[in-house]
Amino acid sequence: MASARKVGIIGLGHVGAHVANSLLLQGLADELYLCDVKAQKVLSEAQDLHDSLTFVPFNTKIVNVGDRYEELASCDIIVNAAGNVAMAAGNRDGELFCTTDSARSFANRVVDAGFDGIWVSIANPCDVVCTTIWHLTNYDPKKIIGSGCGLDSARLHSEISKKCGISPKSIDAYMIGEHGFSQIAAWKAATIAGKPLSELACEYPEQYGFDQAEVEELARKGGYVTYEGKGCTEYAVANSAVRVCAAVLHNEHAVLSASTLMCGQYGEEGIFTSLPCVIGAEGIEQVYTLDLSDAELEGFHKSCQHIRDNIAQLAWW
Ligand SMILES: NC(=O)c1ccc[n+]([C@@H]2O[C@H](COP(=O)([O-])OP(=O)(O)OC[C@H]3O[C@@H](n4cnc5c(N)ncnc54)[C@H](O)[C@@H]3O)[C@@H](O)[C@H]2O)c1
């Protein structure tokens, strides 16, 4: 019998709870380890998820580990959704001190307890939190994956799809850089069926000649349209993080936009940010650079600088 696939989730708020539910519905984990500093919250989520077991594809062991982070050590994946989304109202940077302090409270405890799996980190500001986990633990950076612009790229597909009527799944386009307001769309490298969008715009101007700046802004700000009426975003972010989990658990070598350590891409290094990555059982296998226009390249560097400026505010660093 294959060994059990174990996924831990730290932070059982809107996002963590939806990650747990999505993992259950997709039958991706044999054992789910739930962790939150709010004892009743994690107890209630564990109860609710357990009550779903009649309806999901496979039986799943659901374990309430409270705030005993060391009990996550045997997990294949730990999803970090620990934060306080109310502080991100208006700007994800509002959670800078909260989520980095959270990471400080658990990252070393988990690693010192022997964790050897993959971090999938969602908490915002996502790129700073990923860099923090790496900085604190000296963990293999390939095994730290930020959900980063995975969600923003899906938002870009969604907005392009609304304009041209093509399925979001058939659009190969990436938001890159910071998972925040400084992210940029890599338009020059955007394709459908291998054809650059710019070529399609010449051939079918009515369908593809849309205003790219407008679409980019809709993708960049889409999260705040969702936030406005819900006080959170939850379905799409959870699905994007679970997509990363699936790529790891099935060793897919899937190309997904994710936040990863820059090691000289476009001359950037020492921070996590998003580019298209090949993701498999060992984490990030490859990081691709795209053919960017001069303006896109400048935007990418500005985005990296924004991440550095945020890190510079962390007095304990
Ligand atoms: N990267 C993305 O695409 C993306 C999208 C949406 C939300 N987010 C981020 O995900 C995080 C979670 O969002 P949410 O809406 O679920 O927030 P939330 O406020 O609803 O829940 C956060 C949960 O984390 C718990 N928590 C805080 N510190 C903890 C710690 N040290 N250990 C264990 N649990 C802890 C809290 O008790 C709470 O239950 C936030 O940082 C949010 O900004 C990221």
UniProtKB/TrEMBL annotation:
Pfam families: Ldh_1_C, Ldh_1_N
Keywords: NAD, Oxidoreductase
MF-aspect GO terms: L-lactate dehydrogenase (NAD+) activity
Positions bound to NAD(+): 11-16, 36, 122-124
SUPFAM superfamilies in the cross-refs: LDH C-terminal domain-like, NAD(P)-binding Rossmann-fold domains
Lactate/malate dehydrogenase C-terminal domain ranges (all copies): 151-313
GO BP terms in the entry: lactate metabolic process
Top-rank taxon: Bacteria
Lactate/malate dehydrogenase N-terminal domain residues: 6-146
Keyword NAD: yes
CDD domains given in the database record: HicDH_like (cd05291)
Active site annotation, chain numbering: 179
Family of the protein in this entry: Belongs to the LDH/MDH superfamily. LDH family.
Protein name: L-lactate dehydrogenase
